[in-house]
# Entry
Amino acid sequence: MAFGAVTFFQKGQRCSLPLGGGNAKSKEAMKRKTTRTPFDWEAWKQTLLSHHDVFDALREYLEWHFADAERIKLEERPAPGYERRPTIGLRLQLPENMTLAIRPGWTPPRLRYSDDPADPRLFGRLHTDVVMLELVGPNKLMTLTLREGEPPKAGWTPYDPGVRATRLRTILDTAHDLLVDPAGVFSRQADKCCCCGKALTDVVSRTRGIGPECIRLFGSFTEFAERPDAVAKYRQKYLKETGFLPGR
Ligand SMILES: [Zn+2]
# Structure
């Protein structure tokens, strides 16, 4: 300790005397902050791995949807690349003002302006094989990245184990609902389109939870026969366990 306080022990009690107007309280707080137990990333990785059945199925499902949505968009309007991130993905409103954004991976453009309009650095790249999950409240609450052949990668993670477990549960529950009853999840989004976030006004869109401009991208969620293997397997397992599968 350099300046500010003298620390000594007296009858088993730790005392601190401020020197030269030093704030002993804030020093104590600082000390607590720096000496707390380090985050156990290995245990967190194992926890995420233990839910691979949900994450694998979700990743296959979303990858399939992203690729399909991109194909439809490019058919409508072929583009050499994306200057801005295209609206492909889901923004699901959850209780308690939380939103789960599920989007493909994205590398932003490296340049904002170039003399050559075809300069590849002006365009970002979309990675439909990467699924990014972002749970947000007013702030970032938890982020995860799913990629084939890799364990789920933790991004923003809360330090508190209780908070961490609750937020992971929220993500897992939403993923589960999406796998067994996607239409049900979308129809819970009455106010905003679950794809682009625009306000929904007409009854059909509100019942569906998807706006008129975005519904064309959502065929991949309801083409039951063509679902990827992991999704079909997950649904079969659920059906076996419960004897019931919502939305067919
Ligand atoms: Zn929309």
